TrEMBL record:
Name of the featured protein: Phosphoglycolate phosphatase
A GO CC term attached to the entry: cytosol
Source domain of life: Bacteria
GO molecular function: protein tyrosine kinase activity
Pfam families hit by this protein: HAD_2
Organism: Salana multivorans
Gene3D superfamilies noted in UniProt: HAD superfamily/HAD-like (3.40.50.1000), Putative phosphatase, domain 2 (1.10.150.240)
Length: 225
């Protein structure tokens, strides 16, 4: 599995953890329902698109199974046409990433967002230079679970000899998918309080960090304490 000599590893969710990406995601989801001629979900329902794999949210809001591929294509057309840039890094995140790196952690973004979008978004918003790697999902219609994204991330990091023993790996995320995906790999997940979770959703996380400015200290307390 891991090596005892590799540095502590922090896997970071993107949407709702590092970036406030709701506006562009909600606009793309609304455009997809329009394109299919289906009634637009409410704003609260559209907000539920932030984080989970796209087809899972589409299905939950009534897109028929046989039209899921069409819905995902319509979403992505709208997202790639400009909504992907309707996004911002939460205040204080760059500083917290700097503190974690200064403390010797390896940092990897691990998002359910397709890697072909995650990489340019991290580049545009200055995150690429602040982490070691950026991993996302493949661009296909099959829902990529968070667990499969973590598996893909760990496989590549292992080839680079950057995977320590599991107790020195921490996932940081804002949704229950992050908690469950990490658990499938025996990795703890630290929840963040500034993302898109609903009340109680992060009950199984090892803790919840309420403020961005406390992120690095909370991560380091788990990994080195
Ligand atoms: Mg998230």
């Amino acid at each position: 599995m891991g090596t005892t000599t590799a540095a502590p590893l922090v896997l970071l969710d993107l949407d709702g953890t590092l970036t406030d990406s709701a506006p562009g995601i909600m606009a793309s989801a609304a455009a997809a329902f329009d394109a299919l001629g289906l009634a637009r979900p409410t704003p609260d329902e559209l907000r539920s698109f932030v984080g989970p794999p796209l087809p899972v949210s589409m299905r939950a809001l009534g897109v028929p199974p046989e039209r899921l591929s069409e819905a995902v294509r319509a979403y992505r057309a709208s997202f790639a046409a400009g909504n992907m840039w309707d996004n911002r890094v939460y205040d204080g995140i760059p500083e917290q990433l700097g503190l974690l790196r200064a403390a010797g952690c390896t940092l990897a973004v691990a998002t359910s967002k397709p890697e072909v979008y995650a990489r340019p978004i991290c580049e545009r918003f200055g995150l690429t230079a602040r982490v070691d790697r950026v991993y996302g999902a493949p661009l296909d219609d099959v829902p990529s679970s968070k667990a499969s994204v973590i598996a893909h991330s760990l496989a590549d990091l292992r080839r680079r000899e950057l995977v320590p023993d599991a107790e020195r790996i921490l996932m940081v995320g804002d949704r229950h998918h992050d908690v469950e995906g990490a658990r499938e790999h025996d990795i703890d997940c630290l929840g963040v309080g500034w993302g898109y979770a609903v009340l109680g959703e992060l009950a199984d996380a090892v803790g919840i960090v309420p403020r961005v400015d406390d992120l690095a200290a909370a991560v380091l307390a788990r990994l080195t304490g």
